[in-house]
Every structure is written in C-alpha cells, then in structure tokens.
Amino acid sequence: MNIFRLAGDLSHLAAIIILLIKIWKTRSCAGISGRSQVLFAIVFITRYLDLFTNFISAYNTAMKVFFLGSSIGTVYLMYLKFKATYDHNHDTFRIEFLLLPTALLSLVLNHEFSVMEILWTFSIYLESVAILPQLFMVSKTGEAESITSHYLFALGSYRGLYILNWIYRYYFEGFYDIIAIVAGCVQTILYCDFFYLYITKVLKGKKLQLPA
Amino acid sequence: EEDENKKDEL
C-alpha cells in the first residue's frame, strides 16, 4: 500500500458516499445516470468474486464489501425507491455498446484465459468506460448539480491517483499491470473535459454548465 | 510464486 493508492481508495469511497448523501438527502436521483450505476455494480460484482476465497487484508475486504453493497444499494435506490425521480429521458446511452466490446476484448486481451482472470479483465475494461452514460447525461441536460459534480470529481480523481500508485509501484516494487494501467489512463482521460469545467467553474462557485 | 500475482488492488 502507498499514499497514492490510499488516497485513490479514499477518493473513491468519498465519491460513493457523496452520491448516497445526494440521493438520500434530496430524496431524488435527478441528474444521476442509473445506467452508469448499473455498470459500476457489474464492475464490482465481476471484480470482487474472490471476496471470500482470496483474503488480502481487513482493509481490502472491508472496502470490497462496502463498494459492492453501496453500488448495489445505489441501483436499488435509483430503480426502486426513488424511481419516480429517475430521469429516463436523459439517461439514454446504449450500455450494450459498452458491455459487448469490453466483454469481447476481455476474452482476447487478458493475462490468463481463466474464468476469474477474464472476469477481472472485463471489470477493468468496463470500469474504464462505465462513466460514459453519466457524462453523456450531463452533456444532454447541459448542467449538473454542484454535489453531482463533486461526486464526479472524486470519482475521476480516484483512478488518476491510481495512475500515480502504478508509477510508484513500478519504480519501487518493480510491479506493473499493463491492462489496469492502460484502462486506468483511458478512464482518467475521459474525465479531462469535466475536470477542466470543474476547476474553472465549480471551484469558483458557479454551477457546472456545459456549452450547449 | 502464486501469491505474487494476487490481485491486491481494489
């Protein structure tokens, strides 16, 4: 464990908590893409199947349980409890265009052709594009609540911090995983224009307005 | 050796 990975995990934890607070306090999931949340739940389910078979540390297990529970819980809140506030009309990104290519790619490009490894690879590829429905929805609505933009900033930062973690591990541990690194770079790059808007607007107290 | 490539990242 290193400071970059810890900061990344905490940023990821913060993002999920911010989202849950937003939905629970406003009792609404307006502006949130349910499709992205479904993709995140799939990412965690396919990545943490080894939760019971592969004990790393109490921290690792606790975080996996929280991420699994919160992502499934968020899907429940969006599609069942606060279903009336879910914005179907703007959450229209075709997630099959993300699921199929990442599934095929994980069958072709992986470290080992085994069920667990392919599911892990699929979850890495899927996570890199899972935010697209959410970014698409923000571009369609043309704006986002400030708490939603804080959520996106924390979520985008987490994988950016993981890139620093991979650089650190490469130089100090000689460890690197090219699949996770490439996918993590793609994932972080997808947030770039949002990061620009967040830093130039939201941090100045303005609302996140996308040029229509 | 097997432990080496354990997935220890979240």
TrEMBL record, chain A:
One of its GO terms (biological process) is protein retention in ER lumen. It is found in: Endoplasmic reticulum membrane. It holds the Pfam family ER_lumen_recept. The keyword Transmembrane helix applies. It is a multi-pass membrane protein. GO terms for molecular function: ER retention sequence binding. The keyword Membrane applies. GO terms for cellular component: endoplasmic reticulum membrane. The chain crosses the membrane at residues 62-80, 92-112, 118-138, 174-199. PANTHER family: ER LUMEN PROTEIN RETAINING RECEPTOR. Belongs to the ERD2 family. This is ER lumen protein-retaining receptor. It comes from Tigriopus californicus (Marine copepod).
